[in-house]
Every structure is written in C-alpha cells, then in structure tokens.
Amino acid sequence: MGVGGCSAFYVMHILKKVRQPVLDCEVMIDAQREKEAPKLFKHIQLHFILTGEGLSPKQVQRAIDLSAEKYCSVSLMLSNKVN
Q: Domain boundaries in the chain?
C-alpha cells in the first residue's frame, strides 16, 4: 500500500504541474510474496486508473514513469529486489 500511495501522490503532482485536467487517481495493486518467512515481495504491479477530461495519454505515461523511476522513494527502494 505504501508504494501505491507514494506513486499516486507523485503521478498527481506531476500531472497537475504540467496542467493536465486530472480529477482522480486510483491505483490497483497486485503483489506476490515469498511463501517462507520473512515473506518478501517477489512481484508488485501497479495499475493506475486516472479520471479527467482531455488527459494526454503521453503525459499520463510520463508521469507514471517519472514517479516509479525518479520520485517515489518506496518504488526506488523496492526496485532492486522486486520485479
């Protein structure tokens, strides 16, 4: 949930900064964990559902990419261990 909240925050921040008319952002998270303790995450997938009239798909994708690759510290910490 931490990576979803962090990512959504930065996606919204970036889209508002580039003046995209975003009204809402929802993140669906699918994750798989190891079977044995400490049950670390093996895979995390985020699916963003953005609402707004006239959103640019290119700008939305760029915001998602920047969030994951540059701004969201949770995503960056997990990136070396999780697919």
A: 2-79
Q: Residues of the chain with pLDDT > 70: what percent?
A: 99
Task: Compute the CA torsion angle 18, 58, 63, 33 (nearest 10 deg).
Answer: 160
CATH number of 2-79: 3.30.300.20
Give the pTM.
Answer: 0.89
7 in Cβ contact with 72 (< 8 Å): yes
Tokens 């930065």, residue located:
10
